[in-house]
Amino acid sequence: MILIPLMMKGIYVFSVLALLITFLMVFYSTLNLETAKSYTSEVKLFSKVEDQNLDILLSEPQSFTLPEPDVDNVSVSESFRQTIPQNGAYWNRLLYSRLKNLGKRESPLRDKLSWSKCRQANEESLKINVHNFNSYPAPFQDFLRVMDCRSSAALALLPHKCLPIESDGENQTLLLFAIKSNPGNFERRQAVRETWGQEMLYPNGLQIRRVFILGNPYPEDPNLGPLLSFEKEYFGDILQWDFQESFLNLTLKMNLFLPWTLKHCPHASFVFSGDDDVFVNTPALVTYLQSLEPSKASRVYVGHVINSAGPIRDQKSKYYIPTSFYNGPYPPYAGGGGFLISGALLKPLYSVSFVIPFFPIDDVYIGMCAKALGVSPQGHAGFQTFDVKEEDRDNLCIHKNLILIHQRLPKQLMYLWKGIHSPLLSC
Ligand SMILES: *[C@@H]1O[C@H](CO)[C@@H](O)[C@H](O)[C@H]1NC(C)=O
Ligand SMILES: *[C@@H]1O[C@H](CO)[C@@H](O)[C@H](O)[C@H]1NC(C)=O
Ligand SMILES: *[C@@H]1O[C@H](CO)[C@@H](O)[C@H](O)[C@H]1NC(C)=O
């Protein structure tokens, strides 16, 4: 009576196991087949491209060692301290505790260089310090979890982007276009490549270079791997980091771009940071740069300046900032759609970013860091990050006289670029 059910149970277990193993074997072989298939199709796609480098195609994350910030030498302006109130909000408290430690040799800021350690430390600190953390929107919670973690592996690093530089300064990068994009925006990148973002050599041997800065694709994106591999190989302008693309990670994106430039493009005179859907009148921009007095050229922070703004408290806004997170006004800042900054400012900005905690809105954050360095954004009427009047949007003469306009479709970029270069255009 007892033996039979036991035996039956044994047979049952055995057959289930056998079935499972068969299933696993079949699954494994199809998996192999599939990777093999996608691998050959990628190789086929690239066999047309010369000098193919399989290492790049396979996109193994590479580690990127952050340069040491000059934290011993950071001083924060008095006007910054006056702008940002000292109160009970989390970010404000974090800031003031760091300001208090500024200059102390055993400052804990150095430990922030390890991504995993930092993430753990953040998580613990959040539980203790943000009493209503659970009421924050999910993306905001995600932001806080990795807040101030910055060491991230790269999926495409472009170490030779700004080479070669001749010893006499020939072929030095005059302007580096640092364009915030995301993996799905191929059409926008291509329009930028064909229009305002062209890499070219200006008279006097001055170069314009271009990088698109990307994170990882959104989870809901289709497989963009093959197209991205192609872009990396063929255009050599994709700087991709191994972190999740998201609006609230733009500050992280900017803060990885700073050390990247310090390491791999240290001689860039100017950097243009902007979105992939803006129109830039590059000849007008170059003329403007060349017109700058040498004394001013090293402290340029120019764009469409937003004055007397403050946090938006509407939970539905993508710019939402909870009161318990940050309480105070924003310092003046240049709108993130597109602004210019001197290469000479990148190192001080990078160093001071170890003192000013990351803020989830990237252009506000740059404004804060600049303010801490005592650099004020300069307004320029040629930068229209809120776009021109509705009736002027197809007006070529208006565009010919501006430097930056937000925001245009790829087709419109093509139309505007051709138009402002037409010899028939008389304004
Ligand atoms: C501190 O910064 C100043 C100005 O940027 C620089 O001249 C000086 O050499 C720096 N000092 C150290 C110890 O790095
Ligand atoms: C500068 O770069 C251009 C184009 O990349 C090249 O043709 C030229 O020879 C370079 N100049 C020098 C001095 O190497
Ligand atoms: C930013 O990227 C990190 C690393 O991939 C991720 O853990 C975090 O959730 C992202 N933040 C947001 C707000 O998505």
TrEMBL record:
Species for this entry: Cynoglossus semilaevis (Tongue sole)
- Name the chain's protein: Hexosyltransferase
Q: How does it assemble?
A: Interacts with B3GNT8; this interaction greatly increases B3GNT2 catalytic activity, independently of B3GNT8 enzymatic activity.
Task: Name the InterPro entries on file.
Answer: Glyco_trans_31
One Gene Ontology cellular component term attached to this UniProt record is:
Golgi membrane
Pathway(s) served: Protein modification; protein glycosylation
Family named by the database record:
Belongs to the glycosyltransferase 31 family.
Q: Where in the cell is it found?
A: Golgi apparatus membrane
Topologically, how does it sit relative to the membrane? Single-pass type II membrane protein
Q: Answer yes or no on keyword RNA-binding.
A: no
Name the lineage.
Answer: Eukaryota, Metazoa, Chordata, Craniata, Vertebrata
EC number from the UniProt entry: 2.4.1.-
List GO molecular-function terms, semicolon-separated. N-acetyllactosaminide beta-1,3-N-acetylglucosaminyltransferase activity; protein N-acetylglucosaminyltransferase activity
Q: Which UniProt keywords apply?
A: Glycoprotein, Glycosyltransferase, Golgi apparatus, Manganese, Membrane, Signal-anchor, Transferase, Transmembrane, Transmembrane helix
The Swiss-Prot or TrEMBL record lists the needed cofactor(s) as: Mn(2+)
Membrane-crossing residue ranges in chain numbering: 12-31
BP GO annotations: poly-N-acetyllactosamine biosynthetic process; protein O-linked glycosylation
| Zinc listed as a keyword | no
Enzyme class (EC, first level)? transferase
Reaction equations catalysed: a beta-D-galactosyl-(1->4)-N-acetyl-beta-D-glucosaminyl derivative + UDP-N-acetyl-alpha-D-glucosamine = an N-acetyl-beta-D-glucosaminyl-(1->3)-beta-D-galactosyl-(1->4)-N-acetyl-beta-D-glucosaminyl derivative + UDP + H(+)
